Structures are given as C-alpha cells and as structure tokens.
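S2.1 Query sequence (DUF6894 domain-containing protein)
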Amino acid sequence: MRYFFKVTNGVREVDLAGTELLDENAARREAVRFAGELLKDEPMLLDHSRLLVSVRNEDGSIEFAITIRLEVKAIRSAEP
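Output structure tokens follow.
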C-alpha cells in the first residue's frame, strides 16, 4: 500500500509521491525514522515548538500522526 507523509511545523509540506510500504506497522516505523532524520538534518524545525508528521493511506484517510514537541523549562537548583 502507498502511504503519504505530511509535515507541519508552521509551514506545511505535502508528500505527493508517497512511499510504497508493506503495511501500517511499516508506515509507523518509516514515519518515526522520517521525523528523526528531519530533526537530525534540520534541528531548527522545532523553532515553532512542534513538528507534526501525519500519514495518510492511498484512500486519503489519516492512519496516524506523530507529534514532537519542544518544551524548555528553566530548572533552578537549590543552593546549599
């Protein structure tokens, strides 16, 4: 089955070609790899604090989505 990966991080990038994969589990693994590679190659993608990769099947139905959020909190240590 062909799966289509859409990236949203302030700007949408739509996959028009898709990727032929064996099943939904293979599509999940590919989506995780894809998101990781995107962040490795372009870490500034999280400037919008969220990266969303949604995956559609050939019928156009959303199978699932992966969301990666960046949350930065100041951690204050107690001074002795």
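Helices lie at 24-41. The beta strands are 2-8, 12-13, 19-20, 50-56, 62-69.
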